[in-house]
């Protein structure tokens, strides 16, 4: 009897410990979760062949489609379009000029197929001459006054719960976590620390050149009308090197825009892991990959095996998608 | 008797505690040390008006003349000149071209008065088309094979002991420490972690534009023939904003090249401190300021009072200059 009791207690304690130790509760027990946690245990075990010192534990994350939803429109683009609409009062000529005309006429078809150059033109126009403080205020005002068209929630609520857990988990194990996004750096920095625990100095994004100036004794940084870095595709490893100066050992992306970033990580002679979040859950989120205009995932899917990139199925690997209060899509 | 013994013990313990607590042992007890330590105590005391959360404890440091010696020549420039000499084999035309001619003829007078554009031209030529790994190797080879002309020591030994203590002290109190230098970022990153405890991702410096390319399946970052950022004067706050995204609360500089960086810090509404290292110790280091070609300190000295920038006298505030084994100048 005493032995039986002992075992019961032991079981209860074991279960308690197991659950308390689960730092990724929204991840289904499966190959991905098992491999990631085994990897982290291996790289943090001193004197083992896979050990990686804390200073080299760098993890990078795409934002749109990897940390938060990107359907039916990239959120940073919606902000750019709204800025263009607001600024068009002072630019009556825009109604006749491409690509501004597309925005002012809300030509969705054209807007979803903008070339990189056209998007850059809009981005520059939306931010040029802005001082950093005034622009930050515009970002925060916009985010607090706009909601996702289908979920009817503020955009910053549409973050992926399993990814919030990965961010926290990796930081808890000595990682520095970075955003490496094609979205505008200055659109993300004002809120990433609150939402993701990622401070502004760890946000790498598309940015304009800037200048320092002093007016009436007040120093200021002002955006110029020239692109500094298009932090997408080949631009991602460039941004990573410019800001971090060493190769990450973990990376998460979800589209062909992340191909070069994941390839860069895969060339790290240190132990590393690269992941692709696959949007295959039409029920709880959206299902899209090879033929989507938003977050197209084609080339990276073809080469995932070759590079040993791990495919995360949102449908099968994630027990929940959004933080609890958003468990179902509002419009369905 | 018992009371006397008690007091003796008390004294011994007190002295022991005071000395164990002194995180800046190479700084003379004086106004600067007292103010800095009082400032740090104030900003880390929760619920006090001056409290600054850990995430906003950003400290920035110029490198040449602030963390290590810059006389009789800026070390990053010496490296650039040696690269130009090595590359000149493939550029026979350089002997007729300015500013290359100055380097190849070792025209010291011209080299100490190069314009920013001329220096940029040399910097670009010294690094263009280099892959990041190969370039890092060249930096490390150069540093291990060259010595300071007067101290006859490797350059990385000529770091300032009191500043090593400040870096460690601030980190111990929750600060992130950054280098913000006019020197080339890629010349500093390979060794700053070992020497200063500052990882590559916290090194902001002058940099070239870069490109990502894959050759024979090997991804690589290669420097282009175009300046990305001249991280000096007005470039320093621009570099700080691009990399950090918020104003530092502590900064150390030593020359007019740091003016705008210190001005930027002084405009921080949060509690802050800005320091100028004044080279006034001809005996142990060098004495120079207003009329020097290297590390000229003129405008910043004029305005120090107005901005409440604290002047650190190397002669009076520092008990030692270099780490112990370098207590005297070898050539004297």
How does the SSE layout of this entry go?
The structure is a homodimer of 332-residue chains.
Chain A: H1 2-21, H2 31-43, E1 58-61, H3 75-87, H4 100-104, H5 108-112, H6 116-127, H7 132-145, H8 161-172, E2 176-184, H9 185-196, E3 203-215, E4 218-229, H10 235-243, E5 250-253, H11 259-266, E6 273-278, H12 299-307, E7 310-313, H13 314-317
Parallel strand pairs in A: 1-2, 1-5, 2-3, 5-6, 6-7
Antiparallel strand pairs in A: 3-4
Helix pairs in contact in A: 3-6, 7-9
Q: How do the strands of the widest beta sheet of chain A line up side by side?
A: 4-3-2-1-5-6-7
**Which CATH top level class of the domain at 27-73 and 154-326 in chain A fits?**
Alpha Beta
**Which CATH architecture of the domain at 27-73 and 154-326 in chain A is right?**
3-Layer(aba) Sandwich
Topology, number of strands of chain A: 7
Output the CATH homologous superfamily of the domain at 27-73 and 154-326 in chain A.
HAD superfamily/HAD-like
The most extensive interface, with participating residues per chain, is: A-B, 36 and 36 residues
Report the portion of residues of chain A in β strands: 15-25%
**Computed Rg of chain A:** 22 Å
Query: How many DSSP helices of chain A?
Result: 13
What's the oligomerization state?
Answer: homodimer
**N/C terminus separation of chain A:** 55 Å
Give the biggest sheet of chain A.
Answer: 7 strands, mixed
Q: Which secondary-structure class do the elements of chain A indicate? A: alpha/beta
Mean pLDDT of chain A, to the nearest integer, reads 93
């Amino acid at each position: 009897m005493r032995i039986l009791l002992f075992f019961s207690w032991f079981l209860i304690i074991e279960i308690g410990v197991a659950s308390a130790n689960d730092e990724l509760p929204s991840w289904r027990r499966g190959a991905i979760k098992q491999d990631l946690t085994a990897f982290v245990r291996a790289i943090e075990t001193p004197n083992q062949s896979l050990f990686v010192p804390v200073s080299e534990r760098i993890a990078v994350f795409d934002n749109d489609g990897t940390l938060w939803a990107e359907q039916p429109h990239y959120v940073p683009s919606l902000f750019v379009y709204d800025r263009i609409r607001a600024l068009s009062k002072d630019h009556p000529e825009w109604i006749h000029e491409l690509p501004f005309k597309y925005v002012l006429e809300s030509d969705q078809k054209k807007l979803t197929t903008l070339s990189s150059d056209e998007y850059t033109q809009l981005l520059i126009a939306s931010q040029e001459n802005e001082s950093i403080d005034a622009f930050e205020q515009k970002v925060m005002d916009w985010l607090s006054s706009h909601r996702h068209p289908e979920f009817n929630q503020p955009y910053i609520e549409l973050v992926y719960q399993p990814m919030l857990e990965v961010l926290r988990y990796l930081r808890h194990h000595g990682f520095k976590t970075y955003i490496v996004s094609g979205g505008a750096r200055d659109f993300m920095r004002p809120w990433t620390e609150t939402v993701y625990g990622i401070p502004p100095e760890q946000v790498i994004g598309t940015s304009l050149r800037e200048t320092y100036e002093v007016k009436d004794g007040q120093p200021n940084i002002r955006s110029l009308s020239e692109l500094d870095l298009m932090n997408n595709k080949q631009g991602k490893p460039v941004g990573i090197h410019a800001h971090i100066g060493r190769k990450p050992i973990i990376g998460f992306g979800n589209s062909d825009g992340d191909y070069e970033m994941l390839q860069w990580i895969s060339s790290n002679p240190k132990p590393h892991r690269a992941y692709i979040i696959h949007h295959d859950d039409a029920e709880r989120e959206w299902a899209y990959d090879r033929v989507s205009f938003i977050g197209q995932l084609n080339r990276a899917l073809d080469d995932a095996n070759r590079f040993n990139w791990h495919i995360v199925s949102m449908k099968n690997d994630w027990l929940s998608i959004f933080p609890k209060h958003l468990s179902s899509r509002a419009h369905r």
